[in-house]
Amino acid sequence: MSTLTRPGDTESAAPAKARRLRGLAWLMFRRHRPALLTCLALVVLGGAWIVYERGAMLDTLHAAGWPGKPADALGDNVAGNASETLNSFAVNLSFLTTVLAVFVGAPLLASDIENGTARLATTQSVTRRRWLLAKLGFALLLVTLTTAALSGLFAWWRGSVTPFNPHDWLHDSSFDTTVPVFVSFALFSTVLGITIGALIRRTVPAMVLTFLIGYATSIAFDLVKDRLATPRRIAFPLEGVRPAALDQAVLVDNWIGTASGELHGWGTCANDAVPEACRAKMGIVNSVWDYFGKDQMAGMQWAASGIFLVLAGLLVALLFWRTRRGPF
Known about the structure:
Layout: H1 9-12, H2 23-31, H3 33-63, H4 76-115, H5 117-122, H6 128-160, H7 173-177, H8 179-200, H9 203-224, E1 232-237, E2 250-258, E3 263-264, H10 275-282, E4 284-292, H11 297-325
Antiparallel strand pairs: 1-4, 2-3, 2-4
Helix pairs in contact: 2-6, 3-4, 3-6, 4-6, 4-8, 4-9, 6-8, 8-9, 8-11
């Protein structure tokens, strides 16, 4: 018995279009397409917001006379508003690392373990190690591209209005949203969420715990920023002009001191009836500052990035150790 076919059917059938993605890469794309599209939307909308805000800020500053006038001659309203806008955007942008950790990192393995997809995938021809590498690679590449794109655009905006950047570059959100710190912290937070999900094996509790630990980590990071480099010390006459080295510097501590280098608290003699006479009697002639110069900022950022990447690497090692020994 033979099958009848109409002439031309074979010739007219178009050959199947070959997919560029195959195997696990195709599976990762299909499985995590919502996360991929969400991150793409974040980059597009966030980028458009940055371009719009940058243009509006430049128009306002140019109308006020900048750069013909120095920034401090524009008045508090113009300069202060520009600085506040930059700081507000940096604060909003900094939340992105938590969002990625909670909604991309925490469910990545927890969801697959919870609904049995992990067990099914590793009973096929794919090894557990290869499956885990594919999941990690997809998530970390997605996080890296998203955070690098947005922090790069924000750096472009800040670079065009440098005199209006927040003065305390260490403790405001600008330090955290520059490319190396932002990307590395996002990678650490995401790996933290993935690891928590693999250990807890439940999606919602993993998301909640990731949020709490991520928030605690960001607070701890703020507390240790001052230890990322050694502060410099400078002494200058108590009633003299502040040295140019302190321009854009972040103050760590300050004292008043004698010519021999003996230090006293800043409030020494403040309650005396004649403070000047009191200080003269004690030999106090200098104002002494410990500070971080703006030129130390890049080194401190790379130091912070290195710490976050090392922590992320340790978590990845823990993750592989746990998934190799534990059941799915």
